[in-house]
Amino acid sequence: MSFDPPNRSGRRVPIGWTLTLWGTAVTLAISLLLCGALYVGVSISLRDQVDAFLVGEVYEFLGATHHHTGSEVQLEGDIRQELGSRLRNDLGFRILDLHGKLIITSDANDMVAAHWRPPRHDPQPGSRPFFETIVPPDGTVAYRLCTLRERLPDGRDCFAQASYSLEWTAASLGEFRRICAVVLALAVLLALAAGRFLAWRSLVPLRQLAATAQGIGAAKLNQRMPVAGVGDEFDRLAVTLNEMLAKIERYVRQLKQFTADASHELRTPLSALRGAAEVALSRPRSSDELRQVLEEQLSHYERLQRIAEDLLLLARLDAGENVLIRERVDLNQAVSDVVDLFRPLAEDRRLQLEFDPVAPVTIEGDNGRIKQLLSNLVDNAVKFTPGPGRVVVGLIRHDGVAEMTIADTGIGINGDHLPRVFDRFYRVDDSRSSKDRGAGLGLSICRSIAEAHGGRIAIESRPLHGTTVRVTLPVRLAPG
Amino acid sequence: MRALVIEDEPAVAGFVGKGLREASFVVELADNGIDGCRLALTNDYDVVVLDLMLPGKDGFKVLHDLRRGEKQTPVICLTARDSVDDRVKGLDLGADDYLAKPFSFAELLARIRALLRRGRAMVGNPIVVSDLTIDILARDVRRGGTRIDLSANEYRLLEYLARNAGCVLSRTMILEHVWDMNQDPMTNVIDVHVNRLRKKIDARFDPPLIHTVRGVGYVLRSAES
Question: In this complex, how many residue pairs, one in chain A and one in chain B, have their CB atoms less than 8 Å apart?
Fold first, then answer.
């Protein structure tokens, strides 16, 4: 399984490889830094050893030539003997006067003589020795030169020099560089392998998530992502995805239910229409009979029209389409209008419909829709409360919201039904005749209207004691 | 009465035309906005029924041109899109009423008649229907000289019926005008109000003045008219 994202966004490197390459780059950088530091340390240390060795040798040479008397620059035999093994071909000595004229030398043809130049400083007698590294322009091996200023027994000031070939040092450093290169190469290979392995290992849960996700389709929405239970990022991701899946599953279930209910609701009046028309036409009828059939058709048709209009309104409200008029709504007035509209109906059913008008509560919203919401709720309350009883409508304003309550002393709603009463086409009592009952969309519309205003609707009920519906609307509509 | 129906859907144009003819209108049909606009501008009609979605020239444009041409013919707009914007736009452009499809023909006819009545004459004060007198300024209602006490709602309902005396008013129209609610009347709430009013106006007097028109609504009229 590959995690390549679609090649649109330009990011084409799989995450495992990205992690690996970054790890390798970091390892390489650290190794380079370490090798470089070691190399510098080793070369400084080597040079210091060479320098200390050269100073010692210069003083030995000065001591041995103390009693050199001749005018010959060549070492006399006894001195040569005294110096013995110190005279090697990688080590040269000489003494020069302050003008650079050679007084004495261990080897007239030594490499130093070939590239003579005066010391760059002019050290004072008894001062610290001066060191420099000379790289011959002819490409032969570089050497280290130590220069001292001393006073000869005859009172002349001179420079005493010792030179030492850096061939061995260079060889050591070269060896060291080769070791470093091998170490670096190994580090890179190791980092690549380890990074690849770690990335693969740490992405195992992701691959599992992807595999599971691929298996989840519209028909298998009840499946969930595996949660290892270790509480890491992948667990959190899986939990989040599971919550999302649960939501989608709920929506899809609602949608399926809705479609099934809608087609059922439409089928019933449609089949009644069709059947009645077919039967009416199956043999000759009197005009009175035909009139009766047509009147029945009209009532079925009205039911269809009502459902179509309600569904359209719900679809619009749900789609967030701009179906609300923004205006100032005096809720006190709106509630009064609706209560006045229903009062005779309530009185006919021996119900007290009560509303105590309060100081104007003005909110921003759609007057018509709010009245529609209120009349649906009051209509329900009146319908489901047997007389004698009461329906009390309340209105208060608090904390930036207006709250309306419609409380009745009616038959109430069983706890099983309560969570579903706002669902579309959901009817608590399916036994009522189709003429009497609504399509089961009234409360859905109420909820959609409240939510389109940024408000909420809640219902609580005790069977046989009554139902209270609470609608809260924000005083100010959200912009947009 | 002359009516112009501008509607491209033949089925709708057919039943509206047939219905209006049977209600004694002389009907002309136009199936596109351009013809419709030309007819409305050249002839004098008593009412124009205008669909908003038309080929050639849409209903808003027709309405706009009509009003710019100083034609004050009453216009009822029909639309399949019952969106708030359309409604507001239509009324702003000078439509007199608005009906969303699907509509009932009885509703359309009731609205056309109410419009025609409104155009014909302002009602005087008091309004007199048979032996019922309504003093609009004093809000005083008498029948046969006897004063009748009405609640605020009952009075508003009666005044609306009386201002349109002889015209059938649908339940939707009553809800719209008396309660300022723009929706389908639920249950039988309007009937309950009308019945209460009836008890006060008609129960103790003869003849009854408030009549139910089956499948449409209510009308206030004296028996002889």
Answer: 61
Where are chain B's structural domains?
2-120, 127-220
- Interface test with chain A among B92, B150, B192, by most A beta carbons within 10 Å: B192
**Exposure letters A331-345 (e unless 16+ CB within 10 A, then b):** bbbbbebbbbbbbbb
pLDDT at B185: 65
d(CA B90, CA B99): 11
Domain covering B127-220, topology: Arc Repressor Mutant, subunit A (1.10.10)
Gap from A287 CA to chain B (nearest CA, Å): 18
B102, B152, B186 member nearest A375 (Cβ): B186
pTM > 0.95 = no
Query: Rounded distance, CA A46 to CA A52, Å?
Result: 10
In this predicted model, what pLDDT tens digit does every residue of B84-122 receive, in sequence order?
Answer: 677 778 888 888 988 888 788 888 998 998 888 876 556
A383 and A302 in one domain? no
Nearest to A378 by CA among A401, A344, A402, A415: A344
Q: Do A383 and B85 touch (CB under 8 A)?
A: no
Q: What are the backbone angles phi and psi of residue A233, rounded to the nearest 5°?
A: -60, -35
Q: What is the dihedral of CA A214, A219, A224, A226, to 10 degrees?
A: -40
Q: How far apart are CA B199 and CA B192, in angstroms?
A: 11
Query: Do the domain assignments include residue A20?
Result: no
* Encoded tokens for A183: 């170490």
Give yes or no for a contact between A83 and A64, defined as CB atoms under 8 angstroms apart: yes
Q: Are A310 and B153 in contact (CB under 8 A)?
A: no
- DSSP letter (8 states) at residue A14: -
Say if the Cβ atoms of B84 and A372 lie within 8 Å.
no
- Give the integer Cα–Cα distance in Å for B7 and B78: 9
* A273 and A336 housed in the same domain: no
Lowest mean pLDDT among A41-45, A462-466, B79-83: B79-83
Fold of B2-120: Rossmann fold (3.40.50)
What is the 8-class DSSP label of residue A124?
A: P
Query: What residues contact residue A185 under an 8 Å CB cut-off, 6+ apart?
Result: none
* Cα distance between residue B156 and residue A274, in whole Å: 42
Which amino acid is it at B12?
V
* C-alpha dist (Å) from residue A211 to A231, A239, B35: 20, 16, 64
Q: What is the ipTM of this complex?
A: 0.76
Which residues constitute the domain of residue A259?
A: 233-317
Structure token pair of residue B81: 């899109």
Residues β-bridged to residue B4? B28, B48
Q: What is the pLDDT of residues A282-333, one digit of tens each?
A: 889 899 989 888 888 888 888 888 888 888 888 878 776 667 888 899 999 9
Write out chain B residues lying below 8 Å of A324, CB-based. Answer: 84
- Strand, helix or coil at A229? coil
